[in-house]
Amino acid sequence: MQFDFFPSRTLTLYLAKMFAVRIFAVLVMLVLVLLMLDLLTATGKILAVPGNGQGEILTYAGLRLPQLVARFLPYSVLLATIITLVGLNQNSEVIAMKAAGLSAHQVLAPLLLTAFVVGIGSFAFNERVVTRATATLKAWDANEFKAVPKDSGVRANVYIAEGSDILSAAMVTGTGRATQLSGVTWYRRSPSGGIADQIRSPRATWTDDGWKLEEAVRFEIAGGRSSTLDETVLGKDITPEQVALGSVDPDATSFWDLRRSIDEYAEAGRRTAELESKWWHKLVSPMSSMLMPLLGAVAAFGLARSGQLFVRAVIGMALGFAYFVVDNAALAMGNFGGYPPLLAAWAPFVLFALVGETVLVRTEE
Fold first, then answer.
1. Which residues cross the membrane (predicted)?
2. For residue 231, what is the enclosing H or E element?
3. In the prediction, which pLDDT does 209 show?
4. pLDDT: which is higher, 186 or 303
5. Nearest 5°: phi and psi at 225?
6. Which CATH number covers residue 233?
7. In 3D, which of 87, 92, 75 has the Cα closest to residue 317?
8. pTM of the predicted structure, to 2 decimals
9. Which domain holds residue 206?
10. Which of 14, 32, 70, 166 could bridge 187 with an S-S bond, Cβ 3.0-4.6 Å?
11. DSSP of 99-146, one letter per residue?
12. Burial of 333 (0-12, 13-18, 19+ CB in 10 A)
């Protein structure tokens, strides 16, 4: 019986349903509160654009909502785990299940199964909804909430180096020779390594001699002077193909498309550590939901009347939030090459899975 993790169909459905309802309730609460706070910041910027109104605010909310759901779903699973297990403990249901011969793992099995299903759903939701919403919202934000051109290839916030100089564009539209840059800034470095001057332009188009900047304004850092330039062409070695490579946003790219972009970067001899870390994290992030019941399991056991239930709940919550801190730190290390991408993505997951399993075995099994 100890190796039959679902000995009772009725009990499995009871626990899974209870857990799923609490996940949904906590997620709705978190997302609504955070969305309202986010709208307080963004509404002023949206309405500052002539012609924008309530429709644009609702559009922003609709684009922001999937991002919040994807980001805070693992937190919702953690909080739902604590709420569910504390309730079962307080009502002596855990004691009844253990008296019936169930082990700690059998008690947690329905929750782990539910979290696994949530993780799979989260991955599909990220691929089909979140990436598209993120790409649209970033392009809209980069265009200062003005109307974005009807172009499926709109990209935002592109930075490309030519030697020691840097070309940045707030938005990129089109492909090939039809590529257009908006919100362009050219940073020219001095021999000492600092920024010597900046050349800003609202729009740039590709010519055979480089990027033609319209209405360019030059700002000299040392003298603090600005001047209007005549027709200016810069970045001859930065081709539209390089711009296309430089505009890959892992958060706005699906799992399979990002894999193809990584292969293209590798063929071009470009650094791929950040993209690979984000690619692996697209798998790890949804699966972190399955880790939460294991980390919060400490709240399920121990006598409620012993006075330690609150302490156990705090410990479970602390373990869960510690995982998110370590996961973000490891991902940052992987982005700049401090850790191999595979290690940066999976090491926190494996480490805390072992920690949770160790705590459960040592205290209850």
1. 20-40, 68-87, 107-125, 309-326, 338-356
2. none
3. 81
4. 186
5. -110, 150
6. 2.60.450
7. 75
8. 0.78
9. 155-253
10. 166
11. HTT--HHHHHHHHHHHHHHHHHHHHHHIIIIIHHHHHHHHHHHHTTTS
12. middle
